[in-house]
Design goal:
Number of domains: 1
Structural class: mainly alpha
Oligomer: single chain
Radius of gyration: 19 Å
Strand content: under 5%
Largest sheet: none
């Protein structure tokens, strides 16, 4: 059996175990987040077929990108919530200011993503970097499908593609 197939089956098993713990206490939630992160690392490493040398350089750069993007998104969500919560009491000038802050945050996020993907491409090449973008989306989609299936919601309509975590 091919090593990737074995790794994907292992990932699938870990995902099932993680999903079965869905909904537990805060400490258990952090443990689940950590395990999901480990699953994501294994999934991306496998899908990108990273060598050991590439992985050693890739993961710190990827984690830097993820942290920076997470901070920018968190800041933008906060600004959006402030705008939403105070909308009726804000003046036109204040609404314009907050709207521009949100739009500028979106621009900053795109700049961060561009900057970090260029650094990642220097490590793993542009082909794998472009593939990374779709692999991240596929991981999130498959994880959400598993969570939905465990909760009895089934797959979302129009998303009947095979789940690569099972292969």
């Amino acid at each position: 059996m091919h090593t990737t197939t074995i790794l994907q089956k292992t990932i699938a098993t870990v995902a099932i175990a993680l999903v079965s713990f869905y909904g537990f206490s805060q400490g258990e939630r952090q443990a689940k987040k950590d395990k999901i992160e480990q699953l994501k690392i294994a999934y991306i490493t496998s899908e990108l077929d990273l060598t050991t040398e590439e992985a050693e350089k890739f993961w710190p750069a990827y984690n830097d990108m993820t942290d920076d993007l997470r901070q920018e998104k968190k800041s933008r969500r906060k600004k959006s919530m402030e705008l939403k919560n105070d909308f009726e009491t804000l003046s036109e000038a204040d609404i314009k200011k907050k709207m521009l802050e949100i739009l500028n945050s979106e621009i900053a996020e795109a700049k961060l993503k561009k900057e970090h993907t260029e650094k990642i491409a220097e490590i793993i090449g542009y082909k794998k970097t472009v593939k990374l973008l779709s692999v991240e989306k596929q991981f999130k989609k498959e994880l959400l499908e598993r969570l939905n299936n465990r909760q009895g919601q089934g797959p979302r309509s129009g998303q009947n593609r095979p789940n690569r975590m099972n292969n």
